[in-house]
Amino acid sequence: MSLNALSGPRIKQAGDAGAPYETIRLDKLTPVIGAEISGVDLGGPISNRQMDEIHRALAENLVIFFRDQHMSQEQHLDFGRQFGPLHLHPAAPSEPGHPELMIIKADAQSVRANGEGWHSDVSCDEEPPLGSILYIKECPPAGGDTLFASMYAAYEALSDRMKAYLAGLTAIHDGEHVYRGMFANDGVADKARYPRAEHPVIRTHPVTGRKALYVNKGFTTRILGIPVDESEGILRYLYEHMENPLFQCRFRWQANSVAFWDNRCAQHRAMWDYWPHRRYGNRVTVKGARPV
């Protein structure tokens, strides 16, 4: 079952956006984005009503967090499948026997860490991921926070003139410059080619119907239909605009924490400020649909 199939009709028909939750506790990190959920064991049986409310919480808050979770690899995968078929990363290493279970690791031997710049996961795919579920099992003694930013808020803060200018424009998202050689130190050989796709600069969320900016510094290389220098200037402005702290929340990881973010309306950035300490976990990513 997919988030589109579950969350969309439930929110629209029930009209319960903003209503109290009955089976989970939700504490918002900011009024704009982010909420911490308690009262749920992701490794155990989750009732239909609880799952409904988790779907709703994701749609309303863009990224949701869970503390003190203990999931096996299979339980992590099973939780992801509650939101749709799972996505295979085009480049990253995965756990043996589980290609859908991406390894997230940085330590004293690392030359880079996953997600250091602002991005939406694998937006270079023709059908970019719906969402990502990151389960961190080992944390450094300090640092390693992840920042999340609402692309709803970024879009809504644009002037009407800029919204009109961007409406109907599309942009290229390319994985070549991102993934080529990225995981060589992890023993991952490069592929002959990496995904490249064209997506709208402003996309409409299939569940909430809200508009969000959908370009990111990680993958977007140019806006089509305008001169190259104009594209560079507009993208530079949008990237700076998106980084406004008013659009953000910041999550401080603890061991056995889970973050689940909606790639269709949020971007994130992982802070690598903890070298030489180790951070380790797994990410399960849910397939999405072509942006419209």
UniProtKB/TrEMBL annotation:
Residues 27-285 form the TauD/TfdA-like domain. GO terms for molecular function: dioxygenase activity. InterPro entries: AtsK-like, TauD-like_sf, TauD/TfdA-like. It comes from the Bacteria. Keywords: Dioxygenase, Iron, Metal-binding, Oxidoreductase. The keyword Oxidoreductase applies. Belongs to the TfdA dioxygenase family. This is TauD/TfdA family dioxygenase. It comes from Paeniroseomonas aquatica.
